[in-house]
Fold each of these.
Amino acid sequence: MPKGYKDPTANQAIGNIIYAERQQKRRLEREIVADIMRLLRSRPDTFCWKEHGGMYGQAGIPDIICCIAGRFVAFEVKTATGKPSKLQEITIRKILDAGGTAHIVRSAAEAEAVLDSMKSRKEAAAHECT
């Protein structure tokens, strides 16, 4: 190969990664919520709904509420730069104190990682009982 040769496919791959990262930063919260809801609805052991805020709802409730294999799980969805409010942090703490699970997630991949970790803990607990 000639000196200074740059593989165009490598440059394209790097460009695609940079583009994807920029797009992820620009995604709206509702788009991330829709991705997570699709993921959750594809699971047979999951019942979930999108909690809609507003004047008739309770402030601070996480965006997505689930029952996953009999466990209460809540997801507060944020964009790449979003931060939970103090009220959201208090609500998440109350859920955890009550024995539920609550997570702040920024993508469907993060939500899937939470689900995988729950599955791993459940399998480990079942293994300890045998």
Note: The CA atoms of residues 4 and 11 lie 13 Å apart.
Amino acid sequence: MPVRAMPRSCHSSNAPDAPVLSIVVPAYREAANLERLHEEVARCLAPIWCTWELILVDDGSPDTTWESIIELHERDSRVRGIRLSRNFGHQYALLAGLSAARGAAVITMDADLQHPPAVIPVLIDEWHRGSKIVHTVRRDSLEVSWRKRVTSRMFYRLFSFLSGVPIAPGMADFRLLDRQVVTELLKLKESGLFLRGLVQWVGYRSTNVEYDCAKRFAGKTSYDLRRMLRFAWTGITSFSIVPLRMATVLGLLTSLFAFYELMSAVYVKLFTHHAIPGWASLYGLVSLLFGVLFILLGMIGEYIARILEEVRERPRFVISDETVREHVQVGEFDKVAHATSG
């Protein structure tokens, strides 16, 4: 049977039993999807000669997601489970999984099977060819709503313009990262986490793989419009100070406009016989200036809040439970235990 050659970065970690590949999957209310996800991952990796682990991160789900993870772990020791103490958010669940991953390469993907596991072998092949980062780019089908397509493209173009970090439309958190890239990402301690931008920022040789987004296997997405807007705002403000510079320019323009109106009123009073504009125009001008002022103060306050979050140095996630594989003497079966870490 032919053996697929492993790349130069096969040393994943100091652990002697570390796998070649780690697959990190954040899960929030995904109990109905995990069984099928495990089956698809195992089926797609069966023809590939490499050891692997599937790290499922329960992001404080109120349903039976954690119980499903434990059941999968008991049946397959390659499945590892991490349970966060509450819902910290998708990006922080990904970070928790990256922190626990031991593989020479780490793939991150969603649990709803919209990121098809069938693409994993393609990502591994690109990694073998020397790419440190293998991005995936979603090809939108006709079933994707026009609103989602338009807003997604607008956000990524706006983000790329403001931050100077190019991100292609359709590029999400489905990617492969080399161990060297993961190590560099874990060194970054910022609280406003936007992994899509950080992966681009660290650099390294990369390539893109296109894929067709599959339908969600079961359940409904918890990523509503409010979460998407908050995610977009976090990405922009954590990566760019351009909004602050735009606020300065806007403040300068409105000040010039106000100065022009003042000079116009003085000119009418001193050099003409026309009446000075009444309270309506004055009220409109003052309202405009105060409106712009409060917008600028709100924008500055957002960045000050970011500074406050950074200086607090709170942990970005808290783990309440983990599935632990305890090794016993050689020749005996592995004993599986579920340990709780404070």
Note: The longest strand covers residues 171-178.
Amino acid sequence: MNTPVYLWPSLALAFGLELCAVAAFGVWAFHAGASTSASVALAVGAVLTAALVWGLFASPRAPFSSPVLTPVVTVVFFGAAALALRAAGHPRLAAGFLVLIVINTLLLHLAPAGTTAAEGAAAPSTGGDPTPSSPSSIGPIDDGESRPRQD
């Protein structure tokens, strides 16, 4: 990935915010439990579920992503994480979390075209190599069988 150096801090912050969102779900679930064992079980389940949802639908290399699905899941994920923080009794932390998400998202989307993390992960640079992609222009296909050399 050819990500410019000036985007690294913003990408690092984005990753940190993703981790904070997963932790926010764990904090909320821990506060929702009636007993210590229930709190721990709920927290572990919430963290695993949040990580699974993020990994499947919103991460840069998500297997189930689309131009519509990924932004919707991202907004719902971070919004729910902020609501979870508020429900756990941390309204100022939730507000600060949302402000950081909005600012960082704007910084990443205002970057020059072709330099965002999603574009870099989805379409790695080929280095300008105009390699033909049609099988007929590549040459003979090696099927793995060794043949005696004919001189």
Note: The chain has one domain: 8-123.
Amino acid sequence: MEKGSLDQAQTHFEEALRIEPSNAEYHSGYAFVLEQLGRDEQAAAECEAAIRLAPRSAQAYYSYGAFLEKHGKPEEAAAHYREALQMDPRLVDAHIDLGSLLFEKGDLPEAKDHFQKASNLNPKLAQPHNYLGKVFMRQGDVIQAVLQFKEALRLHPDFPEAKENLRIAKESGAEFR
């Protein structure tokens, strides 16, 4: 987003919040704009306000989790993703992002479970298949990894990471790093 558009969005959200200060979605949207403007402390406060105003909102927890992950707080992010999934187990992005954090941490079984759930919830998404391929590579199952990378590319032919992962998988029987 361009600076002028962000400034305009900020103005709109501030006006909307003046009119309806208890709208959690407005706080979440405002948090996104503030983050884009580099005002991270204010953005975090707006994420917290959204959760306070809508404590059963899976999307509010997910959004704050994404914010925390982006700002180098993976454990806190994972906790927020888990909260979001308790409220809405069909939240595909939360499964993918939690799975990614778990993969990075080395918890392959739980990461795999979240990627499979994401894939089952939205079979047209390529990203979960790419991640599943990475899990299979780490587990030493190159055949399954290749199948997952191929499925990711079938769903999204211009997916550079999946192309590279498939190339590596075909060249190697070694553990994926």
Note: The chain has a mean pLDDT of 95.
